[in-house]
Here is the input.
Amino acid sequence: MRTLIYLVIGVLFGIVLFKSEAASWFRIYEMFQFGSFHMYGIIGSAVLIGSIFIRFAKKGKIKSFSGNTIRITSKEKGFYRYLLGGIIFGLGWALAGACPGPLFVLAGAGYIPILIVILASIVGTFLYGILKEKLPH
Amino acid sequence: MNWIQEPWPWFVAGPLIAFVMILLLMFDKKMGMSSNLRTLCTICGAGKASSFFKFNWKEQRWNLIVASGMILGGFIGANLLSENQTVNLAPILVEDLKEMGFDNAGEAYLPSKLFSNSVFNDAKTLMILVLGGLLVGFGARYAGGCTSGHAISGLSDLQLPSLIAVIGFFIGGLLMVHFIFPFVF
Here is the structure.
C-alpha cells in the first residue's frame, strides 16, 4: 500500500515537472537570463505555500497521518559547503538544463541522452563521497 | 479538458509542487531527489570506497519509489498529456539561442543540439552532458541537497543553509549562462 502511495506521489510530481516545463533545458536557460517570471513563480509559490504549512505544522497544529509531529531536520551548520556546493550544482544545472528531479522525468519522457547525464550525476555523487574529507565544509 | 494538454502555468505548478512536499511530510518523509543518487551509489557497492555510502539504503527505498514514479510521470506527461510539447520562449531569447546554434529553440521541449540521439556520435556534446551531470551530482551532495531539498523544502522551513545553497545555485547558473556559454556554444 505504502509503495503504491509513494509511486503515485512520484507520478504526480513527475507530471507537474514535465507539464510546467520545469524539466525543459530552455526554461532553465530562460530563468538564468531573467527572461520570464515562470520559473520564479513556480519556486516562489511553492515556497510560500510550503512555508505556511510548515509554520502551522511546527506549532503542532498539524500532525502527520501516523500522528507524529511534523518536523524537518535542520541542515547542519556551515557556510562553505552550501556556497561552494551550491555554485558547483548551479553550474551543472544551467549546463545540463536539469536538476535531479527532472533527470528522472526526462528519462521517462523518452530522451535517451539524458541517461548520460544521470550516469554522470551518480559518478559525481560518488566522487564527492571519495573527496568529502578533503573539502571545506 | 483542453487546458490539461497545454503547458501548466506557474500558479498551478508551484502549489502542486508544494502539495507533493506536504504529502511527503504527512507520510513522515522529506522531499529530496538528489538523495537517490547517493542511494544508487550505495546499491552499486560504493560503501567499499567511502564510509559516506555506508548506510542502510533500504531506509531510502521509499524515495527510489518516488523517483520511479517520476519516470512514469514523465512518460505520462510527454505521451498522454501533451498534444504539443513546444516550450514558448520570448522572441529575443529564441534569436539568441539560434545564434548559439540551438536551431529548434521555441519549437521543442529540449534542444536537439544536446538531447537528440545524434549526440552519441558527437564527442563534444557528450562531454557537455557528462560534465553537466558530474557537476549536478557532485554539487548537490556537497551542498547537501538540490532544488527540491534546498530551494523548495529547505526554504519553506526558512533554513539559512538552504538560503546560502540557493544563492550558490544562482551564482553558478548565472556564471554558466553568461560567462561560460560563450566559450561552449
User: Anything to note?
Assistant: Chain B touches chain A through 125 residues (CB under 8 Å). DSSP finds nine helices and no strands in chain B.
